[in-house]
Request: fold
Amino acid sequence: MLRFLRPYLARMLLPVGRGLARVGVTPTAVTLTGAVGVTVSSLAFYPQGKLYIGSVVVTAFVLCDMLDGAVARVSNGTSKWGAFLDSTLDRVSDAAILAGLLLWFTGEGADPMLAGLTLFCMVSGFGVSYVKARAEGLGVNCDVGVAGRSERLVLVLVAAGIGGLDVPYVLPVGLWLLAVLSGVTVVQRLLETYNRLTHPNQHAGNAGTH
Reply:
């Protein structure tokens, strides 16, 4: 859903990436900084119920994490290892955000229903990423679905941030929406992979007509 924004974001971040590369910052350093920052801030703020400030800090590190591609492009530092590391640490960061909320709901937040919902969001989020990775490992593209990583991050961070300002119902609604969209995306990617693996000629023919 937010894929159309990627070219614009890439152009916006390019000058920053150029500046970082000029002072010797590597793509790997940016990736690690973003992932560690998201993980630490999520597990530091959210379990204490500091949802607003936690979301602000996490968002800042998420944006930092987006800079690794810009730094890699201007420094010719793109590599398969860098892509693998970035993808792996993205999963860690995503899990940390939801784990922080889960700790809040099972602790002082005391809301078993939202705790279970958050756990479902975490598991289904892993499912979304795993289906895509497994499909690509079998040689088929599976970049489909209503809720990719960007959409899920925006939804959970906005819901948690606004919820942290004591706006009623925003966080529960956001988590329910995240759960539904994540579940739908898993099914969409499973069906897409099934079709591409069982009807490869049909997809090849369609690709040639566009």
Notes: The domain at 3-196 is CATH 1.20.120.1760 (Four Helix Bundle (Hemerythrin (Met), subunit A)). The chain has a mean pLDDT of 87. Residues 20 and 55 are 25 Å apart (CA to CA).
